[in-house]
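Handout, page 2. Input:
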Amino acid sequence: MKERFARIPWWLVAIVLLGGWLLVSALTTADYRVIFSAVSRGMGVTLTVSLIAYAASILLGLCLGLMRSSHVRAAREISTFYIELVRGLPMLVILYYIAFVGAPALAQALNAILSPLISAGIIGKIESRSFDFATRAVIALTLGYAAFIAEIFRAGIESIDRGQTEAAEALGMSHWQVMRRIVLPQAVRNVLPALGNEFVAIIKDSSLVSALGVQDITQLGKVYAASTFKFFETYNAVAFFYLCLTVSLSFLVRRLETRMRRSKK
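Output:
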């Protein structure tokens, strides 16, 4: 009995009780019902931005991680330059830079490339407003998190015993065949928990897109609180939605880590 009592995750019990109190308040209090209804409309935007940015950052991060582990020095230098530069910048600065510097620069570059078609009247001139702020936010989160995910993949690749690579090369396999068939399958398995933690982090950082006016959970909560002055109730609701997402995902990541530890024994 004592052992079972000691294994209870009291931090999780406290969070569940807090979430239950907020949920009961939402069901029984008129103000909370209105607030939950208003803020919940941003859930779809938050999840969409997070999922797209996460998927894109995994692909870009994998490419950068492979470049970082490459035998080609130029590839290592380019990937290291990008990773160290981006990791040294706050995510909000990256968001502003992509939104207000990168998007106009991209529009100018596309206009220069497509100038013959524009001059012929086949297509119209591309304006920076053609890229909505949700798209700019996704690009910024992708570029930012790709640098962190690249380091996760690099660590996973380097965790594989060098002897396996040497044995595969001795059998006549090329470097990319070794990576694709031997190293990457094991590396990805090793870094799955870390990738899960990055998804939790990107959901939390998706709240930064409210700085661009994107109608996510945080932005809708900010607008509602500013119009009603019910800051306590509104941000309780905002915190509830984020906690539901992050705590459930963190629990799944912990279960994954536990299962992987058992499978290695």
